[in-house]
Design a protein that fits this description.
By secondary structure, the chain is an alpha+beta fold. Helix content is 28%, strand content 27%. Helix 2 packs across helix 6. The N and C termini lie far apart (49 Å).
Length: 173
């Protein structure tokens, strides 16, 4: 028997769709992410890193969420290696390099970047830096290693912050 639908399920059309699932602003980052078919690798990594409780907490957080395709761009075997218990510290470092304290909408990031000459620096929970950069009408997030991720879906609001879907994994230095 199917679980009863929550009252907000009927309004799917009013909420952003990510990975084939509606993202409800009444749910937290983890509650929404587990429903996205495009973020199964990210969810597995968050679980392996022991970050589920932290990202379910009150926040607020801004999360730059790489898709499965983004993880697939990493060298062969990288994800499997990172998911091993002995590499948990490295995995935590990489994942927390995708999270900023506070809530930054796409418009906020673009406005701040424009105000600072096209670039706006953010400090992640890992202590590393990300830089929001405007290129044409697109928002990119650069990591300390020089990688750039395009924000493909912005402003997926959560009860404890906001998710921006990105097309690359952001790596700390």
């Amino acid at each position: 028997m199917a679980a009863p639908m929550a009252s907000d399920d009927a309004m799917e059309g009013d909420f952003p769709m990510v990975g084939g699932a509606a993202m409800y602003p009444t749910k937290n980052i983890i509650e929404n992410a587990v429903n996205s078919a495009d973020h199964t690798t990210l969810v597995a990594a968050v679980k392996a890193a022991g970050l589920v409780d932290a990202l379910s907490g009150p926040g607020p957080f801004t999360v730059f969420a790489p898709t499965n395709d983004a993880f697939a761009k990493l060298p062969a075997g990288t994800v499997d290696t990172l998911l091993k218990p002995e590499n948990k510290d490295q995995l935590v470092k990489i994942l927390t390099a995708h999270v900023v304290s506070g809530t930054y909408s796409g418009a906020d990031l673009m406005q701040k970047a424009k105000a600072y000459g096209g670039r706006y620096n953010l400090q992640t929970l890992s202590g590393d830096s990300l830089t929001a950069v405007i290129r044409g009408k697109h928002l990119y997030i650069f990591d300390e290693a020089g990688g750039a991720a395009l924000v493909t879906i912005a402003d997926v609001n959560q009860s404890n912050g906001v998710i921006h879907v990105v097309d690359d994994v952001l790596l700390p230095k």
